[in-house]
């Protein structure tokens, strides 16, 4: 961070680093509890933030053709094809987005290559997507606004060092005690790291817990701060409407109450609801790559 950074910038960087340190401590001491309770406490609010900043604040909800393609892609994905369906639709999304033709074609070809790779590896593509969607949030945070100085690189360095520590520092047996029956590290590893050596599969589960917490922190604090539109009730009501807010609050409260009764079932159903938000980010990617996120362009014009 540069010496002329403002107190607000220092506070922002401090919060970003603190999010990483909290993620590190919780992932090292109680990763299974973090994976159990994180989605039920932070999951639904982060879905609302994702919808607000990726779709509504970018104006994508007014792009009827994009909405149609998104519905088609996610409908096919729900039939069992998963992320392969979304990747297959993305070249068409890129070609139909506004922007320079050569750039649209280049982005479409890139996503076509990803789609072919996805079909080649089959359902492994969904496992990769499960991990990659945490990193999508990090990439979006980096490009969300025009940045000066190297503060964001400092934050990224701290986050990556935290991940390295989780790989190198042995976990205690107590850290891997299942919070409830049905949520053991081996159960989670079957979904997050299939066909991986058990020792490394455990590391993948812990790393997923770490990056998932960073993912929540980015959507619930860092991107709202960068966008200049914090998650206040009045702002959310203006952007999303009262019915959606009330519905979201009821879902969050319902999942929390369900989790108190049956933690595993509540967590499973949360991910069934949340499954498509990673696909939504992918479908928005061509549009954002061609036009840039809203505030990034605004900053560029003001520069």
Number of helices: 13
Total beta strand runs: 0
- Oligomerization category of the chains in this entry: single chain
Mean pLDDT: 85
Largest sheet, in brief, is:
none
What percentage of amino acids are in beta strands?
under 5%
- Portion in helices: over 70%
> How much is the radius of gyration in Å?
20 Å
Number of separate domains? 1
Describe it.
The chain is mainly alpha-helical. The chain has one domain. Helices cover 81% and strands 0% of the residues. The chain has 13 helices and no strands. The longest helix has 30 residues. The two termini are 20 Å apart.
Layout: helices, strands, pairs:
Layout (H helix, E strand, L loop, with lengths): L6 H23 L1 H26 L7 H18 L1 H14 L4 H21 L2 H20 L7 H18 L16 H8 L5 H30 L5 H8 L1 H20 L1 H29 L2 H9 L1
Observed structural traits:
mainly alpha; about 300 residues; about 80% helix
Structure in a nutshell:
The chain is an all-alpha fold and 303 residues long. It is built from 13 helices and no strands.
């Amino acid at each position: 961070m540069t010496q002329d950074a403002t107190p607000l910038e220092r506070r922002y960087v401090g919060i970003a680093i603190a999010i990483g340190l909290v993620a590190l401590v919780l992932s090292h001491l109680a990763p299974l509890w973090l994976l159990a309770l994180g989605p039920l406490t932070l999951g639904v609010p982060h879905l609302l933030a994702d919808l607000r900043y990726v779709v509504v604040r970018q104006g994508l909800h007014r792009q009827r053709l994009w909405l149609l393609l998104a519905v088609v892609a996610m409908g096919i994905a729900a039939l069992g094809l998963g992320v392969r369906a979304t990747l297959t639709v993305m070249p068409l999304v890129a070609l139909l987005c506004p922007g320079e033709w050569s750039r649209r074609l280049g982005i479409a070809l890139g996503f076509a290559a990803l789609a072919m790779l996805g079909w080649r590896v089959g359902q492994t593509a969904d496992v990769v997507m499960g991990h990659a969607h945490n990193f999508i949030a990090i990439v979006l945070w980096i490009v969300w606004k025009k940045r000066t100085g190297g503060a964001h690189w400092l934050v990224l360095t701290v986050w990556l060092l935290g991940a390295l520590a989780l790989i190198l520092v042995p976990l205690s047996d107590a850290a891997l005690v299942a919070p409830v029956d049905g949520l053991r590290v081996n159960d989670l590893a079957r979904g997050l790291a299939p066909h991986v050596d058990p020792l490394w599969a455990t590391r993948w589960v812990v790393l997923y817990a770490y990056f998932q917490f960073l993912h929540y922190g980015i959507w619930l604090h860092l991107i709202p701060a960068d966008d200049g539109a914090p998650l206040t009730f009045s702002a959310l009501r203006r952007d999303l409407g009262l019915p959606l807010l009330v519905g979201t609050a009821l879902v969050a409260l319902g999942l929390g109450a369900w989790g108190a009764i049956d933690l595993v079932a509540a967590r499973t159903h949360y991910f069934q609801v949340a499954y498509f938000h990673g696909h939504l980010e992918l479908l928005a990617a061509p549009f954002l790559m061609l036009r840039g996120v809203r505030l990034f362009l605004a900053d560029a014009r003001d520069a």
